[in-house]
Specification:
homodimer; 443 residues; mainly alpha; MgtE N-terminal fold; CBS-domain; Tetracycline Repressor, domain 2; 3 domains; 3-stranded mixed sheet
């Protein structure tokens, strides 16, 4: 894909070539290229887009990139862009903007748009309420298919989706769903009530956005109805918004997993300072935790002075402990994320992982025993073998149990990432090692 | 969610209670509960489901669970289940079954079903060809809206989706798309050619399934047309299949990231032996790589004997190197996965990460200098400070560059995970440490 020129054209300020290039390039590619530029460059590229194309590209950008664009444009273009976003996308953009700008923009929206946006902004940040679309077409059960189609023709153009059609009773309570597809193939005189499915997936506005998005994925829905506490319909979560939520959540999990705070912008759009900030706190916390290893070794310093050879195996042993712990925690964190295991499975998981740890430790012990015995003698061979089995078992159990325990006390399990497990099992691993060594070598 | 009883009811063999319970429970929950049971238990629970409900639950299961169910059922029920799956889901199930069973089942399918399934099975395993649905409704550009709707009524009931409608020319070449929504609101006399969008996203059958699925997500599509090398339509990738692909790919990335082979079944369905197998090879490779640290320390054993205190900081230093490397590699791997960076960005990334590494190293050096100086003297303080800056910078650069280089030589970047980075930077980190120590302490 030879798309590099866009970046270069912007930097060279070649407006004519840039205009031609941007008009030729698919919207998604333009959005992708723009997200690789920094603030002022993005605005430059944006100015040369035609008004309609500009909106399409704007919709395809992340909120943080959208903000960069807004910063660089004149007021009336800003309003045009903001006004034409779907209400739920607008709320996400407003989350990123300074409060002052939001107030200004809200004032300029039409009363209907303002009401819908304000409504969504009232829900907690990670709830599905924030992400649902208040633009949908709902039907009464008593309607005939013919009347329903007429209604869809009248209202459907503005609604974000009309493929999934919620069916309501006289109190606006959700009692079923049907689809445009069923209406098309049905006899025009059929009542909606006879056509709808009553076994409906639905969530309330305060449902966690990730849970709602997962339900859309698992059940293969096009739109998931969102209801209030009295089961009255207030919006729908569309499949494209659900996919976006899952991507954001997965990016967050990956970041936590690598031991750093999630970046809320594309990687290249974050400065070196920004990256350092996202990682610095974690590194600092981890190095403070690692100070415990210094204390442990200080405690065994006499033993080390007697047999310096013991120091040679420290990195290998703590790496192995960290790795087997990281393996177990990754597997459990992922299984929790996709809903395969829950807290009640803890005893079962610990028992399984204990056996896995013993198996893995025994395998490593066999692999290491002969070379170590040949070079440093059988005593060292036994020290290493016993230490490996013990450390692997302990690390595997800890790695599997900690994410579940973290969730129990309300911490995101993804926080118990490889670096955290490594640091935690290091100190304990060293204690195990020295106790085994002291016993076997008779120190 | 009090759903535990299903497991218990199956184990107790209480068929009456189980039948009542399963009839009451939503399909997705039943599927979830079944995937937590082992082989024979799954089949027991499955037998008591009604025929229609059984199909719905079967569709919601993973292919590996589906296989367990098939193993435990009588032949005609098996055929009923297999016959009623969508062709693309059937192909995925067949991938998991022994070849003998596949041949047997294929023979029993209707000729039309067999042709579609056989067609899909001809594409490479990770291609979108395997996952597309050959059941779609396509329209000619010359058709009127009225005729198109009549055609959809006739054909649409069996097609997997009719919300996105590909438009073809006289040679079956894809020239546009339209949606049921546009047809509904349009004047019945309008030609499809005047209604369709010609700026169409499409992929060829050999496109990587993950790229195709990402395109569905980025562009917010309900179905992505899949064409052959001459742009003739052969199928569509629906949004629910795209979401499933992304979930599988993300689970794989997570597994690699934790340093183990992906499990192709739900976590609880894998035995302790299976888990050990998925992790054992990696652990073994990593411990062999870690043997390098033993060699490095052996090389500096005299220095260690002179100043045993140096050993105290080994775990802390290699942990910090591993952590900063893991942070950088996670960020870059994720940015690559979502298409934010590419190989050409390597110099830019290395330069950014080098600055990040220096910043982080400097911060840690400041934090560590004073306590180390107070306890072990200023010489040790300087050794630690200089080592931390150097190790952080080196680990950050290596962590960021290695995923890109891995991709360059055709290895999945996700393989360059935290455990791999840790092991790689450990040996080099120790060399840096001892060289700095020898210089400053004058050994």
């Amino acid at each position: 894909m030879d798309t590099a020129p866009i970046e270069e054209l912007v930097r060279e300020g070649d407006v004519t070539a840039l205009t031609a290039r941007l008009a030729d390039t698919p919207v998604l590619t333009v959005a992708e290229e723009l997200s690789r530029l920094d603030g002022s460059e993005t605005a430059v590229a944006f100015r040369v887009l035609s008004r309609d194309r500009a909106l399409e590209v704007f919709e395809a950008l992340d909120p943080s990139d959208q903000q960069q664009v807004l910063d660089g444009l004149r007021d009336d273009r800003v309003l045009h862009l903001v006004e034409n976003l779907d209400p739920d996308d607008r709320v996400r953009l407003f989350d990123e903007l300074p409060a002052k700008v939001v107030t200004l923009l809200l004032e300029q929206l039409s009363p209907a748009e303002r009401r819908m946006t304000g409504l969504l902004m009232g829900y907690p940040e990670d709830s599905v309420g924030r992400h649902m679309s208040p633009e949908y077409v709902s039907l009464r059960a008593s309607l005939t298919v013919e009347d329903a189609l007429a209604r869809i023709r009248r209202e459907g153009v503005d609604a974000e989706t009309i493929y999934a059609l919620p069916v309501l009773d006289d109190h606006r309570r959700l009692i079923g769903v049907t689809g445009l597809r069923s209406l098309i193939v049905a006899d025009p005189a059929t009542r909606i009530g006879d056509l709808m499915t009553t076994d409906v997936h639905m969530v309330t506005t305060d449902t966690d956005r990730e849970d709602a998005a997962r339900l859309v994925r698992e059940a293969g829905l096009i739109a998931l109805p969102v209801v209030d506490s009295e089961q009255r319909l207030v919006g729908v979560l569309t499949v494209d918004d659900a996919m976006e939520i899952l991507e954001v959540e997965e990016t967050e999990d990956f970041a936590l997993h690598g031991g750093h705070a999630p970046l809320n912008k594309p990687y290249l759009a974050v400065s070196a300072f920004g990256l350092a900030r996202a990682r610095g706190v974690w590194l600092l916390v981890l190095i403070i935790a690692a100070a415990l290893t210094v204390n442990v070794l200080q405690f065994f310093e006499d033993t080390l002075e007697q047999v310096v050879t013991l120091a040679l195996f420290i990195p290998l042993l703590i790496d192995t402990g960290g790795n087997s712990g990281a393996q177990a925690s990754t597997a459990v964190i992922r299984a929790m994320a996709v809903g395969e295991v829950r807290l009640a499975d803890l005893p079962r998981i610990v028992w399984r992982e204990a056996r896995v740890g013993v198996l893995l430790g025994a395998m490593l012990a066999v692999a290491v025993f002969i070379p170590v015995t040949l070079i440093w003698g059988a005593d060292f061979g036994f020290v290493m073998a016993i230490t490996l089995v013990t450390i692997c078992t302990w690390a595997t159990i800890a790695g599997a149990a900690l994410p579940l325990l973290a969730k129990r006390i309300g911490i995101d399990p993804a926080v118990v990432s490889a670096p955290v497990i490594t640091t935690l099992v290091d100190a304990t691993g060293l204690v195990i090692y020295f106790l085994v060594a002291i016993t076997i070598l008779g120190l």
